[in-house]
Amino acid sequence: MLNNLPRLPQTAVDEWGFTDESTKEEVIEQAAGKIASAGRTGLSIQKYKPYLKALADYRSPLANFFTQAAEVMAVNTYLGRGANRKRVREVAKTLKVNPRLAVLNFADAFKSLARFQKASRVVLLNFYGEGEIDRLEQEEQKIFHEVWPLWYFFAFHPERVMQNALEECSRESLGLLRKIRLELRQRLKRISSADLQVSVVSESLPWEGTPALWLTIDAHYAWDIYGALPSVLDAISEAVRKVKNTELRRYMLEFNYPEVVLVPLVRGKYVSAVAWRISLSAIIERGPSELGWWNYAQHQIPADSLSELRLAAWEVPELSGAANLMQSTVSLFYIAGHIRDFGRLPDLDEQGVSQLQAYLDRAVKRLSEALQMALNAETELFDSFNVLSEEELDERPALTQAVLAATNLHKLILPSDDFENNKTLHLGELTEWADRLEQAPSLALEASLLWAADVLDRAEID
User: How high is the pLDDT of residue 169?
Assistant: First the structure.
């Protein structure tokens, strides 16, 4: 069944037969470049494409696992007590029996299960009730959680004797996570203070289908959040290192916390629904000082995740300026970085140059919109600063610091000192600009945090 899945009718996919539902997008594009009719997919394939991709990502490693598992089980029957294990493994190696590969494929299927269930739900709701689908998904998850540890210990430690393998394998795997959680909470408690609280708020909530470990960093002043980031990331890394680095540890972390989400709060509420989303493996392997600038980019929290967290928001209209400054600068940075990648393209022919220019024109339009949004936010900040007297400014140091940061930011986000937003930029100019914009997100974050602190100070006084 896993190797011979039922397919959609050919006419619903591509009546010419050049593509089917398993064809990758890049292959369709290549075929479309040679044959005008290729890639003209039907409505059904467009509707079911997300489901079919999720099915392929789940089915492929699972099919590989079942093929490899039989070989591993056959070999492991000879690795019991009293066996010449060295000789058995030598023979298994010549037969290309690889237990590690079987464990890897089973793990990949496990990691793809949540996305497959989410995509399947859209299809199954046409035939089954939500309650029945929920029951099926919970049963699937339960089976994987029980069977994977069993398979891991059987594949890697066939010589071990267990009275109750299901219970012992599960206890050893979950005990590893329990030790990490306890260590992390203790370390976060030591970081926290009266003005800074770091807490674990969820260990099961996914980010767009990917499991994640969610923490909040709640500070009285927004800039303290940014200053606390290295200590929080260090605490996460050291908590994980408290457990011996084994394949079991790696797999259990990949299943449960492949990503860490850090939600910034100011005085118990979020200013903007954004968070840092960082790969746990990057935190462990590199440490805060070695993480690239892209790890510190903030992302919009998915609406469903935000609802599950039940966090309160600051309902202060004046905060929109600080949020717009941050959002527009990050957008500007990403668009410019995307355009910069075109500088690595090989020499293009006349048609290629024409197509690239058309794409650049659309990208530059989005770039121009983001730049204008950032400039408008800066103007709002500068205007609020310029109307104040020296005595008033003395009482609002955060606003003064925000203006200084925004002034430095302004020099970076403009392609040139005499730049006009309607000016056409060539690829070389865009590439040079993108290089300078690498420093922009950190300055924008500093300016927006200081600006938000000033707004909240004034809101509390009023």
Answer: 93
